[in-house]
Model the fold of this input.
Amino acid sequence: MVTKTIDLRSDTVTKPNEVMRAAMANAEVDDDVLSFDPTAFRLEAEMARITGKEAALFVPSGTMGNLISVMIHCEVRGSEVILGDNCHIHIFENGGISTIGGVHPRPVKNNKDGTMDIDLIEAAIRNPNFEICYPKTRLICLENTHANTGGKCLSVEYIDEVGVLAKKHGLKLHIDGARIFHASVALGVPVNRLVQAADSVSVCLSKGLGAPVGSVIVGSREFIARARILRKTLGGGMRQVGILCAAALVAVQENVEKLADDHKKAKALAEGLNNIKGLKVDIASVQTNILYFDISEDANITAHKLINQLEEHGVLMMADSSSRIRVVLHYQISAADVQYTLACIEQAVNGTPFKNGH
Ligand code: TLP
Done:
């Protein structure tokens, strides 16, 4: 009988633990739209310190954090942002930067490592002398880790290089750092150094770090002052938000050190999957907590069928296509859960019986 769910669909699925719930219950709060919530201020000060930026602002989601950042940097409607063709802002945010922000996306091919070639970025910058036809390029966006390519880390050297290019052309640089702590831990580079070249960063606290809700955007004092107003315009101003920020503070203080373990579990899972006939993972490409595996044609099972069978054993995953599945590790998955998951997959793909229920 299934007694436990092993939820590998995303690292957004973590549940607030007892410490977070206690912090939420005891949080000192006030009206944050009027800029009086002390716990929101504590979280924002801490995030500004960690990222080495002047100021920070709590926002309800990563999507809103990215939207606000893009809209502020591209202040004139019809401006253009250069971003990866496989990045979250372009693929998964309902086109909000255009429909709400009036910003035109200029996608550049994302490589398998999450980068865009520097010369392709430079070639995508519009010639300002042809403004009769061209939108004005104002912003470049990077994503670190890069989720859709399997949680790949952008190196500090690469980000710095993009920063130099942005400066040369008078552009701003925004980083969707939903999982910037993962990149920092995997690369062994402090977050503030990793984002040094960026004008703004959006950092999710409700993904690998395990807070129930929220992201923080960081940047200059002027950028954050404008972001505070735009957040209200978009309906993201919240009143006694300290209840959420208290949990987010616990996430930042206690869970960053658990990320290395999530990366280890992702590697262990990848190695186990590679030992199952009919499945394939590029182990070298597993750098953080996200991995994708492929099902070969002769395995005789589709991704959707495999997912349905796993669900019967309490193991949840998301299909990326009919032959590709995404798995995301987080701190509420144990090493034993990884082994149980492998046994379930082996059984579903090759009919190998496994011994213990869960
Ligand atoms: N990603 C979610 C899904 O939307 C795919 C996930 O399960 O991974 N940037 C990146 C890199 C993200 O991965 C996500 C969420 C966001 C931004 C948006 O964050 P939220 O969901 O808080 O709006």
Q: What stands out?
A: The pocket of TLP is lined by residues 10, 12, 61-63, 88, 92, 143, 147, 176, 178, 204, 215 (CB under 6 Å).
